[in-house]
Amino acid sequence: MIFNNFSETEIFSIPKFAVEKTDVEGFMDELRGFHSTFQSCFTRSETRENFFHYMVGQFSELDRKSIEPIALTVEGGTVRSMQRMISDAQWDEDLIAKRYHQLIGDDMAHGDGILIFDETSFVKKGNDSIGVSRQYCGSLGKVENCQVGVFAAYASPHGYALLDKRLFIPEKWFSEPYKDRRSKCRLPDSETFKTKVELAIEMLDHVQKEELLPFRYVVADTAYGRSIEFIEAIEKHPGKTYLLAVPCDTLCWLTSPVTHKKAYTYKGEQRSRTVLSETEKAPVTVEAFARNLNNYFWYRRIVAEGAKGPIAYEFMRRKIFLHRDGLPCKSVWLIVKRTLGAEPVYSYFISNAPRSTRLPVFVWLSGVRWAIEQCFEEAKSELGLDQYEVRKFSGWHHHILTCMLAHFFLWHLKIRLGKKSTLCYAIAA
What we know:
By secondary structure, this protein is of the alpha+beta class. It has helices spanning 27-36, 45-58, 67-73, 79-87, 93-108, 179-184, 196-210, 222-225, 228-235, 286-291, 359-365, 370-383, 393-417; strands at 114-123, 133-137, 142-156, 159-168, 217-220, 241-246, 251-253, 259-266, 269-276, 284-285, 299-306, 309-324, 327-338, 346-351. The protein has two domains: 21-221 and 371-417, no CATH class; 251-368, no CATH class. The protein has 13 helices and 14 strands. The chain is globular and about 75 Å long.
């Protein structure tokens, strides 16, 4: 879904991806040139060559793009050496990531860039792959045996790309009964349990510290919007505006609640704490507020051109005061989106945007998460993002990183060619 009906002075359109193999003469030479950027990130020539062969296989017409079919199809590939390259060989991943981000910056950097955080799942049958567990699987919409990756993507008027990744490892994997599994999967001793929110904050802070990609906006779904820690992690970086989805039961006040200090004694020491005034009303859920709001306050906006015509929603915005631990914690915008019809479906967002921010900006930001969803869809359907059969911690990271690089390489070709064309990934192996 592309949001392209507003003026360029307020927001921008994120382009769709489109490259045909017929657009690219000397595809393999282009790919060799791309790989030359990462040559010094590997200590052995065998690893460098397999790194190249593996990506060639990702661009092939293979139905299953895991190690064995790639190695047996691509010229120069062997199964065991490619397995070693993915699961056991030493990669300078930090250097690869830095150079990768520099390349994204060369092609896509924009002062109003967007960081998008989301997760995707990878269904697994066995129990031996690193981090596998029965947990919510977004691709199936239910609890299933799977791995979950937390990702950051970058979007701008020039395109979109997966920027960073973290494997979510459930807490039970760090318990004593999982000691042998951790050893077999070669989970580094330095790894500790981190929530998905903590993983997202790590990536956010890294992008900011690296200073290779400018961005103004941060967008994420309810898993992160409900986290005060994630919100505060964004707010510590000046000039960043977030729009985060929140659940319908989020509590808030519509006006600033009255509070006062209450004295009390603790272990003989006089202390005070902030409490609500006894006459103050209880907070309400954002759902209760939105569903009882008069139609006068809703604005209908066309957000995209669909196959069957314009796609429209209704929006409203209102300053609210978020509830935390019984007290107001911060004032934010509440933005509500609802579908048209007799039984509308509501979506809720919060934002720290300046008070002068106009509704079209919120409308646009409420839809830009499609860019990271497209990254997942394109990388899974065309590049084998979810078709790996590795079990080790390093193997997962190496496979995912290679897919991210392959996806960006195609975007680089589109940007270099400057063409609007039909999507076609496959090349002759």
